[in-house]
Design goal:
Elements lengths: L2 H11 L6 E9 L16 H13 L6 E2 L9 E10 L8 H5 L1
Antiparallel strand pairs: 1-3, 2-3
């Protein structure tokens, strides 16, 4: 993909122009979850993290996982990202989400 195409695609993904892309590394015990990916009627890891972020950011947030897990599966080192307001220091996200 050419640089201009990548820049355009990235701009479309941003929820607002000043957004910064935050990457997180997630570890969880999957026993109480129906996998990573959001599913109607089930509690998933993605849903729980998105709800926590929405409380802090006061808006709907979509988190993108680099991989998925099945129901009941644990994870260590799973990478995900989301777009956030630049006013929050990126180093504080681990305190906010734990």
């Amino acid at each position: 993909m050419e640089s201009a195409q990548l820049s355009e695609k990235l701009a479309r993904a941003m929820p607002f122009p000043e957004a910064i892309n935050i990457a997180i590394i997630v570890e969880y015990d999957g026993v109480d979850f129906h996998g990573w990916q959001r599913q109607d009627g089930y509690i998933t890891v993605q849903e729980v993290i998105e709800e926590a972020l929405a409380k802090v950011l006061k808006r709907k947030v979509t988190i993108y996982g680099a991989s998925r897990t099945d129901s009941g599966v644990h994870a260590r080192g799973q990478v995900a990202n989301f777009w956030a307001e630049p006013q929050i220091n990126p180093a504080k996200w681990s305190l906010i989400l734990n």
